[in-house]
Write a structure and sequence with these properties.
Helix content: 10-25%
Strand content: 15-25%
CATH superfamily: Vaccinia Virus protein VP39
Number of helices: 5
Structural class: alpha/beta
Strand order of the largest sheet: 1-12-11-2-5-7-6-8
CATH class: Alpha Beta
Radius of gyration: 18 Å
Largest sheet: 8 strands, mixed
CATH architecture: 3-Layer(aba) Sandwich
Order of helices and strands: EHEEEHEEEEEEHEHEH
Number of strands: 12
Distance between the termini: 16 Å
């Protein structure tokens, strides 16, 4: 069986190494099949909520060809096998029978010409939960609990290394709301490593997979930087007695 940590490999091969229901919670963001894998020139003027427009420069992501089609049914079957519960982003793009629970990530883009929200399947409930966090270019939320308020300091913004990167506070909110101390977390499509940074911040053991070597290397560097910045006093309530919980070698 694989060790906890971040692995540069196909998640289907990786999941086969774990027994049934090994992970307490899988938080995953598979490809949607929308061809959002880079290579598009998207520098343009973007309409803002106040009616003005600002010029947003393209991220210049190279085309890595990973978002040509959604995952096959076998992926979801295997994910359900190895995890007790699942949060699956992009569930509206998949032809798979999910339960009724949903999470809406409100990007606080109402009044602009950008995407308003993203949707995830949530196996832990049959209701719809909403997380509000501003996320469009330089406009990022202030905190988990004031995500609709712009933080106002571009120097503190998360640096994007992936065309479909999600913010760390989104994953921290998911862990805060749906995970409990001691849970083992799985992410099959790590991408920018936002999920793994959140796991480290919150003291959760994880297994993450990223098949693309270029993104794996970038995400590993981001994860190392986050690890170097973590203080044991940041989240004392999740630091275990043996001081080894949530960290990998």
């Amino acid at each position: 069986m694989l060790d906890f940590g971040f692995h540069n490999m196909n998640c289907m091969d990786g999941m086969k190494q774990f027994p049934d229901r090994y992970f307490d919670l899988a938080i995953v963001d598979p490809e949607y099949g929308r061809k959002e894998h880079g290579g598009k020139k998207r520098s343009k003027y973007v309409l803002q909520r106040n009616g003005s427009k600002i010029f947003v420069k393209d991220g210049n992501y190279e085309n890595r060809h990973w978002d040509n089609s959604p995952p096959p049914k076998e992926y979801f079957d295997e994910l359900m096998r190895v995890s007790k519960n699942q949060i699956i982003w992009g569930c509206n793009y998949y032809d798979y029978s999910f339960g009724s629970g949903r999470i809406i990530w409100d990007k606080c883009n109402d009044g602009s010409d950008q995407s308003d929200a993203e949707i995830a399947y949530n196996s832990l409930t049959d209701r719809v939960d909403i997380f509000r966090f501003m996320w469009r270019g330089m406009f990022q939320g202030k905190s988990i609990h004031e995500g609709w308020v712009q933080q106002g300091n571009k120097a503190l913004n998360e640096k994007r290394i992936h065309p479909t990167q999600k913010p760390v506070p989104l994953y921290e909110w998911l862990l805060e709301k749906y995970a409990k101390r001691g849970d083992k977390i799985l992410d099959t499509h790590v991408g920018s490593a936002s999920s793994l940074v959140a796991c480290r911040n919150r003291g959760f053991k994880y297994v993450g997979f990223e098949i693309d070597a270029a993104y794996y290397n970038r995400a590993s560097k981001r994860l190392q930087i986050a690890e170097d910045q973590i203080s044991i006093f940041d989240y004392p309530e999740v630091i275990p007695d043996d001081m080894g919980y949530g960290y990998t070698e």
